[in-house]
Protein: LysR family transcriptional regulator
Amino acid sequence: MDIRVLRYFLAVAREESISRAADVLHITQPTLSRQMMLLEDELGVQLFNRTNKITLTEAGVHLKLRAMEIDSLMDMLERDFSARSDVMGQLSIGSGIYSASNEVFSSLQDFSRQFPKVTYEIHTATADKLKEMLDKGLLDFAIMMEPIDVSRYEYFRLRTKDKWGLLLSAGHPLAGKESISVQDLNGTELLVTGRKAIFNEISSLLGEQARMNIRGYVNLVDNALPLVENSDWGCLTTDGAASYLNPEMVVFRPFVPEITTNTVLAWRKYGMSFGVASAFLTYIKQAKLRQE
Structure:
């Protein structure tokens, strides 16, 4: 299967018209129609519902998703090899919202001054999604919170640790405190991280009181905001995740004694010999953003 034909297919799917797609691709309509029929013959399925407007069949939708992944990988591969003599191309980084990732992203401005031809693609997602994207080659790097299985990757721990605490509405009875103790959790209903490994580690430090008060689980703190802002519930989260939120609506209060978590910068093994990603990895190490 030719990548060129897959890109033709993506154009038809995007434009929902053979004629418009042909114009975009600068080829004739009969040529494009023939290529799509040959693709259907090769796969043994019908990809399009051919009515007044071209729509995708179930098989067509599946191919579109896979073709987009392949197209993205081909773009990255072409950029990697074009960057051998001059560092240029796109750097793809995925992360949750952590204090450590904030520090990494802040460093991009200085990296850009050194390598002005580099562009960036930043993804925010859960750790499971980031690992999936890393495995598929859709990310150069993933920033993820421990504990996490990184045995398939190269990685190092970032120097900045995230502090755990409670996200509360500005009017919550505990919002006036500078910090939160285990005893303060009594009577406070909690939303907690959906990552079982992290929750087990944090709750073992907080004790049974934290487990007794759980009302729900969230994968990203943004999903908890409507409940936290409009109730007396609290959300177990980190200072990094809370750093972007409106302090007039919600406040973050750290736990005492302090509870911290490490964050890792991970990348696929055997994939950093040259190109933009290799230059960025060298820069991060020289910038001393890793734990010593």
In short: The first strand starts at residue 48 and ends at 50. DSSP finds twelve helices and 13 strands in the chain. The chain has a mean pLDDT of 88. The longest helix spans residues 58-82.
